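Example record for the data management plan.
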Amino acid sequence: MPTIKNINEGKTTSILVKLLAFTVWTSTLLFGLYILAFYLTSLLNGDPEKWNKMLPELYDANENIATTGIGFHFAAGGIILILGCIQLVEKIRKKYIKLHKIIGVFYILSSIIAGIGGLIFIFSKGTIGGTVMDIGFSIYGILMILSALLTVKYALSNNLRQHRSWAFRLFALAVGSWLYRMDYGFWFILADGAGHTKNFQGPFDQVMSFFFYIPNLIIVEIIIRSKRIVFPKLLSYSFNTVLVLATVFILIGTYFFTARFWGPAILSWFS
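Corresponding structural encoding:
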């Protein structure tokens, strides 16, 4: 039988997970709105060259297929960040089942479109970072499509435990584009961009080609398995420490990016 201490440790982890989740959802919601406000609006206004101010060599007037692919990627990416925040709220899932299913259809379709759009861009034009970035981003896109399909598969077979697990993995991948920018922002502040080059082929850039989604999947996997496995005390304390540090990291990054980039673009879009 679990002791009172073990129960309290479990409650602490549960609270920290919920706090981290709320922080991530808030930040990704803002980033999703920013994606739609900046990238999608620039495309609809016929001025996609603005993309290159934020991501060098992203838009090329001679690469129509690549532009179409990345356009769908951005539009669908903004949608999944917004809808994903709603889908993972437990009270909404249990109380408004029909709404959860309807939103889920758009969420899954958007995830698949975002993955396919990114792959189209990579295979037709290639990323600025070359082969390493092509491989890293391609694996990311394939994993997103696979996770979306498996989320649907287990929902249709009424295997709710596996459905929830794959839905969490899908969201962990969906926030990758958001975390990619957060990591770069902090790296420039803390390390002055060491290891980064303008062509995104420096050692830091090559690590980031995989780092923006692999740690997310590891953390989510620990959260999923923590409900079924009793971890040693030291590992539990270490995991709780990681949760606290991750929450603080995201809060600081969200404030910085909202103040300098996301906020002005969103306000301009709505005004």
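Summary line stored alongside the record: Residues 4-44 form the longest helix (41 residues).
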